[in-house]
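Review form for a predicted model. The reviewer records the input and the model, then writes brief findings.
Reviewer: anonymous (R2)
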Amino acid sequence: MLLQHGHYMDSLVWFKEKRAGKPIPLQLFDAGYDVWLGNNRGSYNCELQSSRQSQMNQRDVWDWSYAEMAKYDLPAFILKVKQVSGRDKVSYIGYDQGATQMLYGLAHWEKLFFQKHLSKAILMAPCAKPKVMDYEKIFDGYKNVFFAAKQGMLYSSLDPRWKGKMRRLICHKISVEYCMTYFDDYQATSMKALEHMLQNGVEQRF
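Model under review:
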């Protein structure tokens, strides 16, 4: 069973909500499943974060969104699980962005890859056409952020300027509550991934 976390998160998120009882990975393990936890690009436990932090502003390093994670990363995760476990197919649980990247993968490469290697996919809170928040207002505020980021050649949220100038800009243009939620305890991401996700909400298409 492969579990994939959401946007601004890493695999440790599965263990953080103590009020919900025993974490899902431990419940699955107790039930006899072979449990694997994926870490998306930019999160603390991935190679991109640990070995390339000095390249935080190299455009080619951060030129990706959930589309690339669906095309390249999910197949790599699944094939690795199959290689080590010896299983013919892998079951998948995705939350938030983890669900979105699987939806994108199934939409484009179901017959070419996932049909052969995936047994089932459980998708929780998939952000394909989000309507939960006022995305029109949020994206309108982020337009200034994206413009400033591109002008300053800022490609990842690892850049110290993201928590400084960009945070103040987001708080001013959107809301203090929103910016505190997404800055106080978040994992790194690319500007391209953030823009892609917000575009889904505004255009209401996937």
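Findings: The chain has a mean pLDDT of 80.
Further findings: The longest strand covers residues 118-124.
Recommendation: see findings above.
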